[in-house]
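explain this chain.
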Amino acid sequence: MSWGLTIYNDKGAVENITSSSFVLDFIKITGDGSKQYTVPNGLTLYATAIGRHSIRTSVSGNTIYWKSNITSPSMDGIIIVGLK
């Protein structure tokens, strides 16, 4: 049995990410931000967010960006970062 997430790539197409993909990081967020990664050749970086408020993620090259409509000193959500 595998689990999955439905995310949208930069062209708006749905991508299904399963547990066979490598999860690289979990980021606890409190507002907008970005984080850069080293991505091995042949793999693609992806990100998706889970939170109490609207959180948008995007990927450009080896950097994950996120925007949240709420800035809070407490955790607003989690971003799951992976390689596929």
Summary: The two ends are 19 Å apart (CA to CA). The mean pLDDT is 80. The chain has one domain: 23-83. DSSP finds no helices and eight strands in the chain.
